[in-house]
Sequence to fold (565 residues):
Amino acid sequence: MDFVRFEQALLHTRGVNHREGSFRYKDLGQGTPGRPENFYLRMVWTEGDFFSPRHMHNFDQVRVQIKGKFSFDKDGTMQPGCIGYFPEGTPYGPQTSAEDTVQLAMQIGGPSRSGYLSEEERTAAVDALTKRGRFEKGRYFAADDKTGAGQDGFEAVWEFANGRRIKYPKRRLEKPLLVNPEAFEWLDLPGFPGVRTKRMWDFGSGALACSLYQLGAGSLLVLAGPQTSLVQSGAGAIGQLRFAKFDVLNLAAGESARIEVHEETELLAMPHPVFPHALESS
Amino acid sequence: MNIGHSETIPWGPARSVRGGRIVFKDLLQGTERTPTNFWLVLADTDATFKSPRHRHNFDQIRITLEGSTNFGPRHNIEVGDVAYFPEGTHYGPQNQELVGKGSLAMVIQFGGASGNGFMSPRQLFEGQEKMRAFGAFEDGVFRRKVAAPNTQINQDAYEAIWEYQNGRPVEYPKPRVTEPVHFRAANLPWQDLQGQRGVYWKELGSFSERNIRIASLKLDANAVYEPQPQPQEQILFITEGTGRFGSGENWSKHTAIHLASNETPSMTAAATTEALILFLPRF
Fold:
């Protein structure tokens, strides 16, 4: 079990980025590099103008808008409270913001099992590529590229880190899914008095799912891995660990946690994809 | 189990509460005034069909069987796609002229997660006929001859009929998602269904607190599918193939089947079969 205290997580600044604009972030969880279900969770702050060109990934993303808003052009706008699912293989954006924003960002290997490039692998690739070219407005321009056309920044990083051409999964969804949790109804969770849930989506066992839990003071909830839960509000304990707003619980497959609630609590729960062969070989 | 066979059901008259020509083949219906009431049709849409941007207080699933079906600017449902239109979420304007030709589609309209249910076509067309006494339906809009108390003189046609039939203003659920969910379902791989040889499954997705779930099923010729009991009602629509249920009913291309909760008829394919499966909301 990986419990991350938000207040104690270090605040980093990313100045050199394969997209445009610097931002600050706190790491809130990582999986195992090289595994198809590897993931990276962080809280991200942007200030002022932010721009990212229209692009797609070969992994899944879930974003939760905490503050400010992000525009994805014809794909919609994320207002505070909005939860977005950006599936692998689905192009989106361009993404812009003209105000300060805070966003939770989960990146995780998707149904194609392309996996997810770890932060260490990504940073090393960006450093190496910066020595032989430049990143500008989300594109990478190699110094020896005489065409001047450049390449999508993420693709350049991925291909450098993996030593092969990127192959995008086929598009499963035409657009990202932007969800307004307020529109969902709380339903009692059977077996857990005082706990209610809102189920957002589930795309099957190969993709990240999303639900909310509302836990009354004095209630109890048992969560089983693999999944990540963010404390959106409230306070309580997991064994000896006291939790508060924005703390994160990452549970691996086979792990579980007993959550005791002291003050009314809201949890965002993201069950991870499960790849049968990956589990068998672990 | 209720079943509707396309080859034995005639096409209905051309009619629409919105603009342009559309003809329905009424394959299967649920039970009026229940939260899971539904209507499953084949829709033969002419290239002239148009509909203004609007939303519903019920859910819809659409697939295209022939051609391409427009549902908004730059949005066409191609053969192999599945589009889910949740209650409360705006879409459109639809303009089939953008495709340049008509299309054949399968449409399921059903009560969504809010529990508002679904107004049956009988209720819809009965209301439309009665309302012609005090207004006209033009391009998807009901234009009243005289303004009535607490009503708009011009109103979305479906909304006006719903209010007439239910005697209260329509209340749209808050949109749970900002846009319809458009699956490029043909791009998803088939997964073996464990323990059932020659049977394959595609889990497209499930949504909302009421677990509205969409999947596809494929059976090789001679394969037997033994479904597990499910708490939710299911609708199956056969897109390809022939076969027979354990109950003795046959299926063929464009057969529609409704299963009650926990109803588990075995399916034996005579020819390779594919079906779309909708799990209706669980209340």
Q: What stands out?
A: Chain B has two helices and 23 strands. The mean pLDDT of chain B is 94. Chain B touches chain A at residues 74-75, 81, 88, 113-114, 173-179, 181-185, 187-188, 203-209, 211 (CB under 8 Å).
